[in-house]
Design goal:
This protein is α+β, with helices and mostly antiparallel strands. The protein is about 25% helix and about 25% strand. Keywords: Signal.
Length: about 180
Protein backbone atom coordinates (compact mmCIF):
# COMPACT_ATOMS: atom_id res chain seq x y z
CA UNK A 1 0.00 0.00 0.00
CA UNK A 2 1.38 3.33 -1.04
CA UNK A 3 1.36 6.16 1.51
CA UNK A 4 0.49 9.73 0.71
CA UNK A 5 2.59 12.65 1.99
CA UNK A 6 -0.17 13.47 4.53
CA UNK A 7 -0.05 9.94 5.96
CA UNK A 8 3.74 10.12 6.26
CA UNK A 9 3.40 13.41 8.13
CA UNK A 10 0.94 11.81 10.56
CA UNK A 11 3.33 8.89 11.19
CA UNK A 12 6.25 11.28 11.80
CA UNK A 13 4.12 13.33 14.22
CA UNK A 14 3.04 10.14 16.05
CA UNK A 15 6.64 8.95 16.34
CA UNK A 16 7.78 12.32 17.70
CA UNK A 17 4.92 12.35 20.21
CA UNK A 18 5.84 8.90 21.48
CA UNK A 19 9.50 9.90 21.76
CA UNK A 20 8.61 13.06 23.68
CA UNK A 21 6.36 11.07 26.03
CA UNK A 22 9.11 8.53 26.73
CA UNK A 23 11.67 11.29 27.29
CA UNK A 24 9.31 13.10 29.70
CA UNK A 25 8.64 9.88 31.62
CA UNK A 26 12.36 9.20 32.05
CA UNK A 27 13.24 12.77 33.01
CA UNK A 28 10.03 13.44 34.95
CA UNK A 29 11.46 12.24 38.30
CA UNK A 30 14.23 14.83 38.10
CA UNK A 31 11.73 17.57 37.29
CA UNK A 32 9.52 16.56 40.25
CA UNK A 33 12.49 16.68 42.61
CA UNK A 34 13.42 20.14 41.42
CA UNK A 35 9.80 21.35 41.74
CA UNK A 36 9.40 19.94 45.27
CA UNK A 37 12.73 21.34 46.39
CA UNK A 38 11.94 24.76 44.96
CA UNK A 39 8.51 24.91 46.60
CA UNK A 40 9.65 23.68 50.05
CA UNK A 41 9.20 26.34 52.78
CA UNK A 42 12.20 27.61 54.71
CA UNK A 43 13.11 25.64 57.77
CA UNK A 44 12.00 22.28 56.40
CA UNK A 45 14.78 19.76 56.38
CA UNK A 46 15.93 18.66 52.96
CA UNK A 47 17.91 15.63 54.08
CA UNK A 48 16.34 12.22 53.79
CA UNK A 49 16.38 10.15 56.93
CA UNK A 50 17.64 6.59 56.72
CA UNK A 51 14.46 4.55 56.91
CA UNK A 52 13.83 1.09 55.56
CA UNK A 53 12.23 1.24 52.16
CA UNK A 54 9.08 -0.85 52.16
CA UNK A 55 7.73 0.58 48.91
CA UNK A 56 7.17 -1.58 45.93
CA UNK A 57 8.75 -0.58 42.66
CA UNK A 58 5.41 0.55 41.17
CA UNK A 59 4.60 2.95 44.04
CA UNK A 60 5.25 6.57 43.26
CA UNK A 61 5.95 9.13 45.99
CA UNK A 62 7.25 12.65 45.63
CA UNK A 63 10.88 13.22 46.44
CA UNK A 64 11.43 14.37 50.02
CA UNK A 65 8.07 13.00 51.24
CA UNK A 66 9.81 11.01 53.99
CA UNK A 67 11.21 14.20 55.54
CA UNK A 68 8.06 16.36 55.41
CA UNK A 69 7.16 17.85 58.80
CA UNK A 70 3.34 17.84 58.94
CA UNK A 71 3.23 19.98 62.11
CA UNK A 72 4.57 22.94 60.18
CA UNK A 73 1.75 22.66 57.64
CA UNK A 74 -1.00 23.21 60.25
CA UNK A 75 -2.17 26.73 60.96
CA UNK A 76 -4.36 28.44 63.50
CA UNK A 77 -8.06 28.73 62.61
CA UNK A 78 -9.18 31.97 61.05
CA UNK A 79 -10.95 34.14 63.62
CA UNK A 80 -12.58 36.58 61.16
CA UNK A 81 -16.20 35.40 61.47
CA UNK A 82 -17.46 37.89 58.89
CA UNK A 83 -15.50 36.23 56.09
CA UNK A 84 -15.32 32.73 57.54
CA UNK A 85 -17.21 30.47 55.17
CA UNK A 86 -17.71 27.78 57.77
CA UNK A 87 -18.53 29.99 60.73
CA UNK A 88 -21.80 29.55 62.59
CA UNK A 89 -22.74 33.25 62.35
CA UNK A 90 -23.29 33.10 58.64
CA UNK A 91 -25.34 29.92 58.85
CA UNK A 92 -27.78 31.60 61.22
CA UNK A 93 -28.05 34.64 58.94
CA UNK A 94 -28.57 32.41 55.90
CA UNK A 95 -31.25 30.40 57.73
CA UNK A 96 -33.09 33.61 58.65
CA UNK A 97 -33.04 34.89 55.08
CA UNK A 98 -34.20 31.50 53.79
CA UNK A 99 -37.25 31.65 56.05
CA UNK A 100 -38.24 35.13 54.88
CA UNK A 101 -40.74 35.12 52.03
CA UNK A 102 -39.30 35.89 48.63
CA UNK A 103 -40.60 39.22 47.41
CA UNK A 104 -41.35 39.08 43.71
CA UNK A 105 -41.20 42.16 41.61
CA UNK A 106 -44.68 43.42 40.98
CA UNK A 107 -45.57 43.02 37.35
CA UNK A 108 -47.57 45.88 35.98
CA UNK A 109 -50.74 45.43 34.03
CA UNK A 110 -50.22 46.82 30.55
CA UNK A 111 -52.68 49.44 29.30
CA UNK A 112 -55.80 48.06 27.66
CA UNK A 113 -54.98 47.77 23.95
CA UNK A 114 -58.61 48.08 22.85
CA UNK A 115 -60.61 51.13 21.92
CA UNK A 116 -64.35 51.05 22.52
CA UNK A 117 -66.22 51.31 19.20
CA UNK A 118 -69.80 50.51 20.21
CA UNK A 119 -72.16 47.94 21.68
CA UNK A 120 -75.30 46.06 20.78
CA UNK A 121 -77.91 44.72 23.20
CA UNK A 122 -79.98 41.73 22.08
CA UNK A 123 -82.44 40.25 24.64
CA UNK A 124 -80.24 41.29 27.59
CA UNK A 125 -77.03 39.98 25.97
CA UNK A 126 -74.41 42.59 25.14
CA UNK A 127 -72.06 42.43 22.19
CA UNK A 128 -69.27 45.00 22.38
CA UNK A 129 -67.32 46.18 19.36
CA UNK A 130 -63.68 46.94 20.01
CA UNK A 131 -60.95 48.16 17.74
CA UNK A 132 -57.41 46.82 18.10
CA UNK A 133 -55.30 49.00 15.83
CA UNK A 134 -56.57 48.34 12.31
CA UNK A 135 -58.51 45.25 13.41
CA UNK A 136 -62.09 45.33 14.68
CA UNK A 137 -63.48 42.60 16.94
CA UNK A 138 -66.86 41.89 18.50
CA UNK A 139 -66.82 40.23 21.92
CA UNK A 140 -69.27 38.74 24.40
CA UNK A 141 -68.85 37.64 28.00
CA UNK A 142 -66.30 34.78 28.22
CA UNK A 143 -64.45 35.57 24.97
CA UNK A 144 -60.64 35.75 24.99
CA UNK A 145 -58.69 38.18 22.81
CA UNK A 146 -54.93 37.84 23.18
CA UNK A 147 -54.07 37.94 26.91
CA UNK A 148 -57.39 39.54 27.79
CA UNK A 149 -60.59 37.72 28.77
CA UNK A 150 -63.99 39.43 28.75
CA UNK A 151 -65.21 38.74 32.27
CA UNK A 152 -68.39 40.81 32.46
CA UNK A 153 -70.38 43.26 30.34
CA UNK A 154 -72.91 45.66 31.88
CA UNK A 155 -74.65 48.63 30.23
CA UNK A 156 -72.09 51.13 31.55
CA UNK A 157 -68.83 49.17 31.72
CA UNK A 158 -67.00 46.05 30.65
CA UNK A 159 -64.59 44.17 32.92
CA UNK A 160 -61.51 42.70 31.24
CA UNK A 161 -59.23 40.21 32.98
CA UNK A 162 -55.50 40.27 32.15
CA UNK A 163 -54.75 36.52 32.14
CA UNK A 164 -51.01 36.44 32.99
CA UNK A 165 -51.67 38.29 36.27
CA UNK A 166 -55.34 37.38 36.72
CA UNK A 167 -56.12 41.05 37.30
CA UNK A 168 -59.39 42.73 36.42
CA UNK A 169 -59.47 46.05 34.56
CA UNK A 170 -62.70 48.01 33.95
CA UNK A 171 -63.38 49.64 30.59
CA UNK A 172 -66.11 52.28 30.53
CA UNK A 173 -68.46 51.78 27.59
CA UNK A 174 -71.15 54.41 28.41
CA UNK A 175 -74.84 54.15 29.19
CA UNK A 176 -77.39 52.47 26.95
CA UNK A 177 -79.41 54.76 24.71
Amino acid sequence: MKQTPGQRLVWVALTMTLAATAWTALNGEQADEVHVAASRPQGVSTEVKNQPKSRTSGEARPAGADSLDVAQLQRAPWQDSEHNLFGGGQLVAQAETAQQPIVQQAMEIPPVPFTYAGKLEDHGQFTVFLSLGEKNVSVKTGDIVGDWKIKEITPSRMILSYQPLRADVPLMIGESN
